[in-house]
Structures are given as C-alpha cells and as structure tokens.
Amino acid sequence: MRITVLSGGIGGATFVGGLLDEVGADADVTVVGNTADDIWLFGLKVCPDLDTLMYTLGGGIDPERRWGRADETWSVKEELAAYGAQPTWFGLGDRDVATHLVRTQMLEAGYPLSEVTRALCVRWEPGVTLLPMTDDRVETHVVIEDEGQRSAVHFQEYWVRLRAAVPAHGVVMIGIDEARPGPGVLEAIAEADVVLVPPSNPVVSVGPILAVPGISDALRATKAPVVGVSPIIGSGAVRGMADQLLTGLGVEVSAGAVGALYGSRSGDGVLDGWLVDTSDESQLPAVAAAGLEGRAVPLYMSDAGTTRTLAADALALAREIGTRS
Ligand code: GDP
Ligand code: CA
C-alpha cells in the first residue's frame, strides 16, 4: 500500500509515527513536508517542519519540547547572544546547528533542498520518503497590527518571538505563485492508494502545501481517497496557534469549519473524508454539509497507542470511501 501524507511539524510528525506503527513494513509512506516555515538565520538554512519530521521519525527529537534534538546544549546560542547578534529568540541548539550547517553547505554547492533532505535522511532513517513540498523558496509572513501600523513578520518571528499573542490579519506566502512542486510530490499523490492530511496547522502548514501550484489539482485528480484529521478539538487548537490564525482569516475555530475550509473533492476542495473528535460529534452535520464523509473518533494523540488507533481510524475511513467510489 502506498500512503502519502501532507504534513507540518509536530502534529503531523506525531501522526506519521502512529501511522508507521499501524502499517509496519506493509506500506510505502511518503511525507510531503511544509517548507514555508523555513528561515535563514546567521547564514544557515533552517527547515523547522522537515527537521521535526526527520528527528521525530528518526528517534532524535527532544521528547518534551517536541522540536529540536534530544540531549541538546545551547553554547552557540549563548555565544551569539553575548555578541548581541539578532535574532536571539530562535532556539538554535548546538546539535541542531550541525544539521543546518550540512544543509546549507549542500545548498551552496548547488544541490536542491530535496536532494539535501534525502542526504540528511540517510543518517536518520525516518522510515518514510520525506519530500519537501517544493525546492523553491517560499516564506510565510504574518500580517500584524502594532500600534495602528500594519506590518508583516516572518512566521517564525510571529510564533516564537511574539508567541502568536498579537492578532493576525492574514498570512502572505511569499514566492508561492512561482513555486513548483518538489521532485516526486505530484507522483506521490497521483500514485498513492491513500492520501492523508494529519492534524497539522491548516493555515501555515497544510495551507502552503496546497497552495503550491499543481498540488491541489493533483489531489483532486488522484484515484486515492483523501482523508483529513482535524487539528481542532472543541473550540481550540490542541497545541499551537491554529486558532489565532484561523480567527485572523475569518474562519470559525471548529473541526467542522476547518473541514469546510479544505472542502470536498465533490466540489472544488481537496478532501473526501474528515475525522473529528468524539467530543465534536455535534460537528458531523456541518461536515456532511461541506460534502465530506465525517466520523467522530478520539483525536487526542496522548501516547503511542492512541496515535496508532487514530491512524488506523483514518485508514479505515479511507478504505470505506475507496471501496464505494
Ligand atoms: P507545527 O508545524 O509544529 O505547528 O505542526 P503541525 O502544523 O503539524 O501541527 C500543529 C497542529 O497540530 C496544531 O493545530 C494542533 O492543534 C494539532 N495537534 C497537536 N497535537 C494534536 C493531537 O493530539 N490531536 C489533534 N487532533 N491535533 C493535534
Ligand atoms: Ca510548522
């Protein structure tokens, strides 16, 4: 079975871990990772979502923070701060810096990000084929209002420095219109037996992947069922700031509204099925009204067992949809 997943960082990586537990060696899993969070810092190319996926699935993640390396030390960050070098708000750990050095060196030698990612994965063996959504530079900036002045800041600055505490008025994905899908991305969608959208941030993680010209069309064209998992349980994001960004875009913060935002392939959307939490059963009529096949199952990935069960539930819904069409 070939499974393709469109993923952001923490939520997506956790889900894919459960998916691998569920399917074992029987499946060939490709993860298309968001790269619109990427940022250049001190001359280094940092790819937060690709690294979270690679470290989580490869056993190198810090289990508490859920980003960056385990057993991390922070000498580089402290030394930079001692020089007063900006920005000081981004967590560049010493072990993590080695990843960014290798990546940057390869990029400067002329390798595209997809080749670099493949090379980094030789060490981490994440158990999936990890593909950047694009090799082209795309950066999400968030439009904020500060003392009556509108300005745009890099997504990482909005999230890490401002902690998403400032209202967002919209997001701009710089470079997205010229971006081309990374090598293998369209094929992974076209040739999949199942496509899954994990509980990732719909605005800044899955949103950019869907906005790369050609990717949404590939999702609408694939014969595979496309099933998504809500990142919203009740009226908030489980972790992170999807709620702030949704509010900024004028989308109601609910599992049903996020499903409707992705939309149904029977209309001009990208999904067939949508999982909401058992506590959100009342959302199912809204999910159906959006043209999606909905199911209410436990969505909270509290441990490896619940995460694996969630992956199994997503596959079961995909199978049901697949056999009917
Ligand atoms: P990021 O790139 O690190 O922000 O990670 P993602 O975009 O992959 O995931 C962040 C989203 O995952 C947030 O919107 C959370 O609401 C969601 N999330 C995190 N943990 C869980 C969970 O246990 N269950 C569900 N359903 N969603 C979760
Ligand atoms: Ca991210």
UniProtKB/TrEMBL annotation:
Pfam families: CofD
Gene Ontology molecular function terms on file: LPPG:FO 2-phospho-L-lactate transferase activity; magnesium ion binding
Keyword Nucleotide-binding assigned: no
Keywords: Magnesium, Transferase
CDD domains attached to this UniProt entry: CofD_like
EC number: 2.7.8.28
Protein name: 2-phospho-L-lactate transferase
